[in-house]
């Protein structure tokens, strides 16, 4: 039998990849000195990303479409264009649009980034990463999922190191690459072992094989395979033990790319973990649950404790991002207890992970947007540089303070507050009260550095803090205002996100 291909289902992927190719060709057409080169590349990229998001919504509006299915088995498909996949694709499009807007100062001629950042390569690589994120949302087998995750990640190695002549940029890129190679090898080893034991790669077929073949429980290699897959994917969310790459990589990357790493890359890791845990390894939650719980506890604790001692802004946000990954993983850590004793709480736990991830990426993008507006094309700099910044840029300081309050879970950052409440409540409903206590204690520890940094913005300074680069570019201003307003909206009406997360969990 011939395998059929549904090109309508693949339309979002075609648009994302096609836009990347178009940007690459346009970069060859325009000479390096042409003034319209950078605006044209960014404009074409923005239109292509918008088209990708619209296509994802339109495809999801109809019946579920599948392609790359096993001939004769309509339920074993590698690519499923359903509503959760469309939501993931739209989220990646929104994040990519935000990063494109924030990249205007970085790509400006004469930007103080240690050397010119080539706009063509920059935009092309960013769109290649977007393509991986779009495919990830629709992936329904281990091979497609891992290829999508690597397509999302591979361009970032180069993007981190694009600041020519900056040692921190090169060092961060090499560190990121080496740790990623190890984590990818670990994941592939686990996936290969699962295939050897079950003969399946599709997520639903893996779950069926693990549930039907009880004899696999007597083989320790099966548990090892499951844990290897989880630990390898944990790298993408900067979870312990694959977390040490994050601070140096974030600090060495251009600020917009650091924002993309802490939002889109982390979102990709969360989606991959959700698909594997809920879709494939659910029959083995007695093994998966404790492993995820241990990862969550270690990740949030290490991230918060090390963040207390940071003196550079991006490094502090990087360690904060590590801690936030622990909060995202915590509901999945309570998955095993809920599945064994309170099955009705399982959708609540999954929805808590989805909801927290959505709240987090919005707030984190807002934080990095304010940094770009304050610093221009420069790096994040020392934390002390932000002392008294509210005297010079009160609105930017207010936006950054709101983002910090959201990450801390304090008013007026109600989005972050509701996110933490949802996680704690889900853990309590799932019978993982001890994990809820750990989350609450770590949230208190996190207050120390978030509140200290927020107070520093309004502290008196001997001289006004100087901005590293000129006026705020209008795309940056629009992006910061849009993200801040969105954070305020979901903070005042969190049920919009929570209902969508609950629907995705039930789907």
Strand-helix topology:
Elements: H1 11-29, H2 37-61, E1 65-70, E2 73-81, H3 83-102, H4 104-107, H5 119-138, H6 142-160, H7 167-198, H8 203-212, H9 220-234, H10 245-252, H11 255-280, H12 285-307, H13 313-333, H14 335-341, H15 346-375, H16 394-408, H17 414-429, H18 433-457, H19 474-492, H20 495-506
Q: What Rg is obtained from the alpha carbons, in whole angstroms?
A: 22 Å
Strand order of the largest sheet: 1-2
Order of helices and strands: HHEEHHHHHHHHHHHHHHHHHH
Q: Which structural class best describes the helix and strand composition? A: mainly alpha
Mean pLDDT: 87
What does the model show?
The protein has a two-stranded antiparallel ribbon. The protein starts with 10 loop residues before the first helix and ends with a helix. Strand 1 (65-70) and strand 2 (73-81) form a beta hairpin. Helix 10 packs across helix 13 (313-333) and helix 15 runs antiparallel to helix 16 (394-408). The protein has helices spanning 11-29, 37-61, 83-102, 104-107, 119-138, 142-160, 167-198, 203-212, 220-234, 245-252, 255-280, 285-307, 313-333, 335-341, 346-375, 394-408, 414-429, 433-457, 474-492, 495-506; strands spanning 65-70, 73-81. It is globular, with a radius of gyration of 22 Å. It is mainly α. It contains 20 helices and 2 strands.
Features of the shown structure:
72% helix; mainly alpha; two-stranded antiparallel ribbon; 2 strands; 20 helices; 507 residues
């Amino acid at each position: 039998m011939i395998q059929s291909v549904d090109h309508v289902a693949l339309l979002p992927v075609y648009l994302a990849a096609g836009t990347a190719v178009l940007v690459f060709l346009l970069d060859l057409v325009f000479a390096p000195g042409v003034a319209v080169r950078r605006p044209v590349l960014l404009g074409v990229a923005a239109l292509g990303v918008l088209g990708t998001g619209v296509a994802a919504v339109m495809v999801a509006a109809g019946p579920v479409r599948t392609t790359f299915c096993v001939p004769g088995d309509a339920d074993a498909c590698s690519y499923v264009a359903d509503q959760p996949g469309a939501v993931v694709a739209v989220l990646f499009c929104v994040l990519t649009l935000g990063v494109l807007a924030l990249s205007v100062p970085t790509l400006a001629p004469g930007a103080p980034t240690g050397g010119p950042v080539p706009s063509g390569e920059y935009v092309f690589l960013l769109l290649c990463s977007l393509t991986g994120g779009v495919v990830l949302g629709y992936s329904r087998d281990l091979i497609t999922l891992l290829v999508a995750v690597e397509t999302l990640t591979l361009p970032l190695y180069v993007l981190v190191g694009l600041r020519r002549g900056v040692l921190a940029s090169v060092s961060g890129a090499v560190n990121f690459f080496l740790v990623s190679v190890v984590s990818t090898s670990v994941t592939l080893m686990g996936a290969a072992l699962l295939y050897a034991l079950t003969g399946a790669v599709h997520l639903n077929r893996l779950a069926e094989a693990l549930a039907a073949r009880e004899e696999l429980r007597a083989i320790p290699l099966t548990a090892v395979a499951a844990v290897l897959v989880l630990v390898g994917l944990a790298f993408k969310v900067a979870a312990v033990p694959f977390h040490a790459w994050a601070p140096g990589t974030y600090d060495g990357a251009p600020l917009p790319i650091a924002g993309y790493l802490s939002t889109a890359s982390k979102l990709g890791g969360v989606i991959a973990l959700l698909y594997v845990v809920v879709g494939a390894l659910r029959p083995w939650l007695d093994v998966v649950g404790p492993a995820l719980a241990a990862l969550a506890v270690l990740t949030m604790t290490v991230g918060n404790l090390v963040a207390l001692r940071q003196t550079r802004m991006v490094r502090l946000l990087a360690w904060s991002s590590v801690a936030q990954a622990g909060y995202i993983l915590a509901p999945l850590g309570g998955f095993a207890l809920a599945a064994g004793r309170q099955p009705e709480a399982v959708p609540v736990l999954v929805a808590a992970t989805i909801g927290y991830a959505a709240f987090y990426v919005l707030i984190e993008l807002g934080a990095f947007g304010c940094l770009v507006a304050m610093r221009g094309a420069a790096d994040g700099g020392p934390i002390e540089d932000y002392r008294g910044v509210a005297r010079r840029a009160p609105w930017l300081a207010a936006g950054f303070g709101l983002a910090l309050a959201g990450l801390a879970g304090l008013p007026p950052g109600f989005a972050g507050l509701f996110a933490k409440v949802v996680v704690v409540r889900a853990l309590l409903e799932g019978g993982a009260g001890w994990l809820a206590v750990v989350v609450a204690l770590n949230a208190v520890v996190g207050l120390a550095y978030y509140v200290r940094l927020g107070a520093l913005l309004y502290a008196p300074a001997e001289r006004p803090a100087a901005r590293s680069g000129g006026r705020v570019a209008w795309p940056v201003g629009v992006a910061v205002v849009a993200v801040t307003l969105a954070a305020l909206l979901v903070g005042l009406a969190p049920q919009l996100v929570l209902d969508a997360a609950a629907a995705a969990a039930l789907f």
